[in-house]
Amino acid sequence: MSGTRPADAADPAEPADLAVPQVPTRMVVHALVREDGTVDGAELYEVAALLGMTDQQVRLCVKRLVAEGRFVLEGRGRRSVLRPPVDPGAAAAAGPDLPGLVPEVGFVRHAYRQDRGLEPWDGVWHAFAFAVPESSRAARDALRDTVTGLGAAPVQGGLYVTPNAIGPYVRARAAELGVAGALSCLSTRDLAVGGTTDPVALAARLWPLAEIAGRYEALRTLAEARTGRPTGEAAAGARAGEGAGSSGDGSSGVGSSGVGGSGAGKVLARAVALAAALSDAMVPDPLLPPELLPQPWPGAVAREAAARAWDELRATAPAGGPRLFRLYGEALG
Question: What is the pTM of this model?
Answer without folding.
Answer: 0.77
